[in-house]
Amino acid sequence: MANTVKEDLSAPGMTDVRRARLLLERDGHTCVLCRGDKVYADDRAGIAPMMGFIGAGVDLRGFSAADRIVGRAAALLFVLAGVREVYSAVMSKGGAEVLEAHGIAHSCTTLTERIINRTGTGICPMEQAVTGIDDPHAAYKAIAATLERLRAQAAGQGGAIGGAAGMDGAADGTAGKSSGNAHSQAVDDSGMSNAATGARGDAECKDRSATAAQEG
Fold first, then answer.
1. Which one, of 136, 133, 145, 194, lies nearest residue 165 by Cα?
2. Which uninterrupted H or E stretch holds 66?
3. Which is it for the CA torsion 116, 117, 119, 121, positive or negative?
4. Which of 21, 121, 154, 209 is 20 to 30 A from 187 via CA?
5. Is 129:142 a contact under the CB 8 Å cutoff?
């Protein structure tokens, strides 16, 4: 790994996908896209980078991409963006099939059956969102709707936690009222943060079976 990361990015014959992979590994990004001297890099988790690029109208046609985890959801977004080649540290068989079907060159370090959620209790919600969907435009809409639902759930959970803490603080009486209010606010902030982290964690999609998966 050390020799790979130190490789000269400007070396003759350096391909776009190789450059993207080296930047991904060297700088710790979660998603990197390269085409010649143009480079787009993002550090957000899950499919947030590609959703952001597409939503902002960034022209990624002809770019090569390197990502940490690519399932069907991410693969359909790469298709929608017009990416020509994809490398991923972990790629699901479903993701590879999508890229193959659209003539996009792809490679990975680990090929796995599926992408599961952060808690390991089921399939990644982004993968669930695109179940039965083959059209990239429809996939983008389904993913956006799922992300919005997760954000709404996170906000609702945070508010409920804060409200309950505030009621407990008020019951302490006049002497403890200000302390109870302060405690309520602290728990409210923490609750919203934890709930939001949980939603992002679901979207991040970690694969617990990577060590048992075959090499791609």
1. 194
2. strand 64-70
3. negative
4. 121
5. yes
What are the residues facing 128 on neighbouring strands? none
Reading the block at residue 157, the tokens are 């959970």
Side-chain-side CA neighbours of 98 within 13 Å: the count stands at 27
Contacts 24+ apart (CB under 8 A), 76-79: 76/130, 76/133, 76/134, 76/136, 76/139, 76/140, 77/47, 77/50, 77/51, 77/136, 77/139, 77/140, 77/143, 78/50, 78/104, 79/104, 79/136
d(CA 175, CA 33): 58
Name the β-bridge partners of 31: 42, 67
Residue corresponding to tokens 């979660």: 30
Q: What count of residues does the chain have?
A: 216
Residue 117 token pair: 């959620």
Q: Which phi-psi region, left, alpha or beta, contains residue 189 (left: φ > 0; alpha: ψ -120 to 50)?
A: alpha
Sheet holding 31-35, edge to edge: 38-42, 31-35, 64-70, 85-92, 105-112, 214-215
